[in-house]
Amino acid sequence: MHSSTVALAEQFDDLDQQHEASSLGMWVFLATEIMFFGGLFTAYILFRNFYLPGFEAGSRLLNVRIGAINTAILLCSSLTMALAVRAAQMAKKGVLITFLLLTLLLGVTFVAIKLGLEWRHDYLEGFAPGVHWTFNGPDWRHIELFFVFYFFLTGIHALHMVIGVGILTVLIILAARGRFSSPERYNAVEVAGLYWHFVDIVWIFLYPLLYLIGGRY
Amino acid sequence: MGTATVEPQIESRVHYLNVSYGIKSWLLTTDHKRIALLYLASITFFFFVGGAAAVLMRLNLITPEGAIVEPATYNKLFSMHGIIMVFLFLIPSIPAVLGNFLVPMMIGARDLAFPRINLLSWYVFMAGGLLILYSIITGGVNTGWTFYTPLSTTYSNTNVITAALGVFIAGFSSILTGLNFVVTIHKMRAPGMTWFKMPLFLWAMYATSIIQILGTPVLAISLTLVALERLFHVGVFDPAVGGDPVLFQHLFWFYSHPAVYIMILPSMGVISELVTAFSKKRIFGYSFIAFSSVAIAVISFLVWGHHMFVAGQSIYAGLVFSLLSFAVAIPSAIKVFNWTATLYKGSVSYDAPMLYAIGFIGLFTMGGLTGLFLATLAVDVHVHGTYFVIAHFHYIMVGGAVMGYLGGIHYWWPKISGRLYPEGWARLSAAIIFVGFNLTFFPQYVLGYLGMPRRYAVYPPEFQVLNVMSSAGASILGVGYLIPLVYLAWSMRYGPVAGPNPWGAKGLEWQTPSPPPTENFEETPIVTEEAYAYGTEETQVA
What we know:
heterodimer; A: about 220 residues; mainly alpha; Four Helix Bundle (Hemerythrin (Met), subunit A); 2 strands; B: about 550 residues; Cytochrome C Oxidase, Chain A; 16 helices; about 70% helix; globular
């Protein structure tokens, strides 16, 4: 129990209270995130209803296959994150570091594909509103609006991924230093996991909204 | 007088103010009480900056053709006044100062759940605040605090992006404060402190926090979209390229209508404390007041459309929003009736905090009732965008929120500083503020009803008498605000020592020394009695 008393911040009475507080804190934070993305989703859906043909045409210009690959990568990363939390609960240092590294790797891959492959491709094709826009077909104004939302939504999501990657890096360093050597200290990993899963879930909504319901299928 | 003899008393004991010295001990503190004081200093500064803008506006409106500034400068003045007062004073005022100080003390905790996040919130707030100041110094903004499109996105050639970014950043500090309070109130209550034994101030803070958490992110995305549209000239809100300016209003007011409850709910919480403490009587209808705070928080998210009655919103949406706006008056009225009923047969004393509380009840009632005029579709068409709206808003925000804030600052000042403020001066300034406030804003109801539009630097000559009255009132109000600044600062050093409970009030915060030790309580209190158990224990009927 000595290690656990060290882990207890002075404002808390015991570890249970501290764990509950940090978990609740993350849930409350995720509630703000839901409102953040919720406002954007609402605006997107409204405009999609106003300008259905343009938005469907815009959606058909995206690469579904890359989106699907990224979806698979994120789902795998959620699995490895969950396994990392389990490893932290059991204080298995080696397993924990392995799974955290795997999660980190998958997250970086996602961002690399998203920004390096997809965004770059869209930019070169001239689908970057306000920056590089060359598309002049019918409905181009509405297709441009679709791409505004596409870049903003996926950009904000990618930003959250990058923050998540930063959190994972910190966790890996802490884990390597033996911070999670006792099962009572797993809470930080669990809270980071909540965040990671949330960012995944946002993508689970983004993928169909942007790629799939475009009248393609 | 007397200070020389009592000086040793207050210095001999270690408390949160003298536990360490130096600028670092303040800038790196995680003590919620010290962070509250950091906020107090910051928002006081912003209050007087925003107030200075208001003074210039009122000076300009003394003559019909505009006395001192160009119309373009006037536009920047009212924008500056609105942005600073709303985002840098009213929203953080009670939560970040009194809430930070009192939430842990009232529930018997040593600190908030996340002390470092609490400090972070102050830094984030200052970053946003200084960015807003920078945007003003380098040329200002002319969109008003509402950043309406397409003015903000297309036509304005002022520092919209910088100011919006400042508001965006300051918003995160509000979220962090709300998050901290929710977790603290849920998880950190002392043994025996059940939800229904909590002081009503905490219920108000909890309801406020919910709004901060759920509303602020929506403001963040709306302002981000405005910035993106300005930067990349893409048309999210610009109708010329397929966007929708009314969408901005929907997104903006989805936050900003609840935001006015972020500003008034904490004040209502303060008033609940003041009315009981100075009536020496249990509050009337505890659970009604508690739940009315939660009800206001919930309904506040459903009324934003009443800002768009004349903005091309469908008439059916207007009907529903009108009805829901009437509904929000019910929990507000419940509070007013219960406060009044608490006074009945109480031993009422008229110390300065109580004067503010009584002022609040009267002015808030007027502001609330005129809100009902504005929620009525047909009346709103007549007074929309006039000084009637300005007067209504200021009766709630200044007559309500600021009165509650000042009342609270006076009431808890002995706890915060360990010293008593000079009661005579405090009563005098409360009276000056009340008179000055009414002289400033009551004529604006009349002006608005007669048709004077808001946000104009010039006006027809027949409105001059009322405008001069309003400007005269504003100068009285300004004096009223300066007096407390002086005597509160004075009392920190020269005021008589207060002792732990100068008011004879109930509540955990009064059971610990003033100023409190860093850990608030020598040992964690165990709560056995309900809140506001005034009178002898035997006469209390559960």
